[in-house]
Amino acid sequence: MKRSSEIVVLKIRDEVPLGHPEEDANSPGRMRTVIGWGPELAEFERVSPHWAHEEVWHRSNGWRVLDPGRAVSCELALVVDPEERVRCVAKVMGVMKRDLDERVSVIGPVEDDKYLPWYGKKVRLNRSKNSVTYIDAKDVIPPDKLDPGADSISVPKAA
After folding, report:
1. Is the pTM value of this prediction over 0.70?
2. Distance CA 129, CA 148 (A)
3. What is the DSSP-derived secondary structure letter of residue 5?
4. CA end-to-end span of the chain, whole Å?
5. N or C: less crowded end of the chain, CB within 10 Å?
């Protein structure tokens, strides 16, 4: 299958207790009782970035309404916090559909240190209220070309 030039972006919601344990589709056997972005994750990111990124992926990559064909053709998934800052970069390896309600989960591992320059930076998204959106990879500055002082990974719009 040919990979698209799109990146799937998953918006992580504010932290919410689930009220029941739920298995993480990316980590069979790993249960979660909380989803979403909490302020402790930013602190965790300063102390242990790799494990913080894994926890963000664990808390954000739940069952969503999305087009499985479009999502699986993307090479990368970004997780952005409520302020649209990158908090996780994962490689899209596939998708899994839940029979109960046709929701889909993106499957794949958190990417390596290559993408560290993107973390904490804003990304320009459309104004959709949907928790899933797609951006063109051409609209994102590659991590090795990003100015360390930049506030955004988005290519500046032409005037």
Report:
1. yes
2. 30
3. S
4. 36
5. C
Domain count, the chain: 1
Q: Residue 88 domain-assigned?
A: yes
Sequence-ordered alpha helix ranges (H) in the chain: 39-47, 49-60, 68-72
What distance in Å separates the CA atoms of residue 87 and residue 12, rounded to the nearest whole number?
9
**95: exposed, middle or buried (Cβ count in 10 Å: 0-12, 13-18, 19+):** buried
Q: What is the pLDDT of residues 18-45, one digit of tens each?
A: 888 888 777 778 888 888 888 888 888 8
Say which residue the tokens 């998934």 belong to. 77
How far, rounded to the nearest angstrom, does the alpha carbon of residue 147 sit from its chain's CA centroid?
Answer: 22
What Cα–Cα distance (Å) separates residue 144 from each residue in 48, 113, 139, 147?
22, 11, 15, 9
Query: Which pLDDT does position 106 carry in this prediction?
Result: 93
Token code pair at residue 148? 């360390």
pLDDT at 120 over 90: yes
CA–CA distance, 55 with 52 (Å, rounded to integer): 5
Domain that holds residue 96: 6-145
Asked if residues 40 and 110 have their Cβ atoms less than 8 Å apart, the reply is no
Tell me, yes or no, whether 1 lies in a domain.
Answer: no
Whether 156 maps to a domain, the answer reads no
